[in-house]
Every structure is written in structure tokens, then in C-alpha cells.
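Fold this complex.
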Amino acid sequence: EPEVTQTPSHQVTQMGQEVILRCVPISNHLYFYWYRQILGQKVEFLVSFYNNEISEKSEIFDDQFSVERPDGSNFTLKIRSTKLEDSAMYFCASNRDRFSDTQYFGPGTRLTVL
Amino acid sequence: DAKTTQPNSMESNEEEPVHLPCNHSTISGTDYIHWYRQLPSQGPEYVIHGLTSNVNNRMASLAIAEDRKSSTLILHRATLRDAAVYYCILRDQGAQKLVFGQGTRLTINP
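Structure:
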């Protein structure tokens, strides 16, 4: 069964550094998402992406965040200048089309900011 | 986003049925009821969804009240692998994002 993959599984960085989290969505999917989950808290929506542009973003997704689909397979989340409070699990998700009922999530990248 | 209310935690025994309730009294006519679960140290996983009628799939059943203000996810025969946080989510048709609440942490006793 096709699945969403994410790399790396764990990223440790220093405060102020830039990080790029990578995702490979399911190949025929058109909608892509990033969510995050701070330890012990609920899963929070960050951004949705379709047709090479952001379709919706949350208040969390401020100017330090950006997303990109640099080629036909990867979907990336960049955090320009990491803060301690960016430490969280970041999940990538995808679904086939606008009316698809199921979002498929990756296993997540644990980001630790020191 | 319409709100859902779930118990913080529930406990059941292996091989017994589990009924996970969800209240959504402010549901609108175009909201679908989705259930996802999150196994320990994993990303969320789709379980089932429905609009008005009860639904069955290989993982679970979804029973929806006639007024749609509540629903119940039914695991017919729980296994240890079903221990997870279960999220009841309302999603408007055509909406993209999922809005997660705190969910119900289900513990399965051997």
C-alpha cells in the first residue's frame, strides 16, 4: 500500500538555524499538508498546498515558515530561524483530490531545537 | 469549525467491543463526521467517516444518531494494537484541513 514518507525521522538543531523537513507524498495525490504536534498537545494544522501554491494556512504558519514542492515528488517545510517553541513532531499528509475523504499521514519528523 | 466533545480516556479489555462516543451538537448539514486514530509514536491514521447513515469498514463501524448531534465509533473486537488516541473530527465537504481536538485515549487491557 502506498504511504507518505518523511525524512529525517529526528532533527536536532540550534536556535536560530534553518531547517528543512522533507516529505514524499503518495504519488497521485494533489493536496499536501503540514501539521505539527507539540509534545503532549493536540495535532495542529499548519498549511495546505495545492497546484504549487498555499491554499490555506493557520496563524501558526507565520513568515518564518515556507513550503515548496521543488520537484514532482518532494514536499518540504522550511523553518527559517528556529525557536525553542518550534520543537515538535511535524507530520506531512496528502490526499488525492479536493473531495477525497481520507488524508494519509506520514510517520513524522521530530524536531528538537536547543 | 464545529466542535466535538469526547471523553479524555477509556479503558477496555482485549477481544471485547469498544464504543467510543462523540458529541457534536453544533454540527451543520454539510459536516462529515471523521474518525482518525494515532497509535503511539505514529502519525494520525484514518479510521472511518460518515454523513448520516451508519457505516462499516474493515477497521470499525460508525453509528450516527438520527439528529446527527452525536456519533459512536465501534471497535467490534479490540486488540492490543487498537490502543491509541481516537479523534472525532467534523469536516465540511470540500474543506481540506483537519481540526483535531484532544481525542480519547483508549487503553486495552490484555
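DSSP finds no helices and nine strands in chain B.
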